[in-house]
Structures are given as structure tokens and as C-alpha cells.
Amino acid sequence: MIWQPLKDDVSALEVQLSASVRALVAAHPAGGPEAPAWQSVLLDDGRSLQLRLAASPQIRTKFGLRAVITYAVTGQAVIGAEGFACQGEAVLDLKTRAFLDVQCTLAPLGVVEAV
Predict the structure, then answer these.
(1) Could you say which of 30, 44, 61, 105 would form a disulfide bridge with 12 (CB–CB 3.0 to 4.6 Å)?
(2) pTM for the model
(3) How many angstroms separate the CA atoms of 84 and 32, rounded?
(4) What digits encode the pLDDT tens for the residues 67-111?
(5) Residue-by-residue DSSP string for the chain
(6) 20 in Cβ contact with 40 (< 8 Å)
């Protein structure tokens, strides 16, 4: 594999989502809490991000040559008054406990009441 620069800019929101997923999986390797609490984060651009994420371990499998476990991530996000459904996955190397992949997508839900 040869290093290549990113083709798309990574937004502050994408960076924060990835960091939040990594922190959740690291803190709860057997799965996230049943009723996760809202987490408040200030983004680099000054916007406030409210997150409520849960992660559940899925089947153990292979990622290339590595034995991994994949976590399904679900939750909600609120930026200002705009709500989003969050879905994604995190792939964790079983031997090194390193994250091999973290992906999250946000689907707009519209205007929501304050959390």
C-alpha cells in the first residue's frame, strides 16, 4: 500500500464524529450503554455538537490479514437546531486494539427541540 493524500477535505464534524466513536468503543469494548447520555462538543468552527451514540460488537472476522471485531454504531446528533440520525461502524484489530477503520454518516432529520 502506498500513502496517498486525502481526496476530500475532512470537516471538523467528521473528525469529531470519528473521535467520539473511537472513545465510545475504547470505553465500552463489550458494547455501549443501553441509554447513552448526550455528549456536548464545541466544534472548531464554533458550532455546538450534541451527540448520543451507542456501539454494539458484531461478528469477529478478518480485515485483510488481521483478525478484527466490527462494532455497529447508531445514535443521534444535533447541531444548532438541526437533528441527524447517525449510523456507522468501527473496525478494531483484536491483537493490537488499533482502529483500522471508523466511518459514520449523518442523515438529516430536520429541526428538533433542544436536548
Answers:
(1) 44
(2) 0.81
(3) 19
(4) 999 999 999 999 988 999 999 999 999 899 999 999 998 999 988
(5) ------SSPPPHHHHHHHHHHHHHHHH-TT---SSPPPEEEE-TTS-EEEEEEEEEEEEEEEETTEEEEEEEEEEEEEETTEEEEEEEEEEEETTT--EEEEEEEEEEEEE----
(6) no
Three cell numbers written together for 6: 486525502
Q: What does the block give as the cell for 96?
A: 493490537
Find all residues with CB under 8 Å of 28, minimum gap 6, and list them: 55
Amino acid at 3: W
The cell for 115 is 436536548
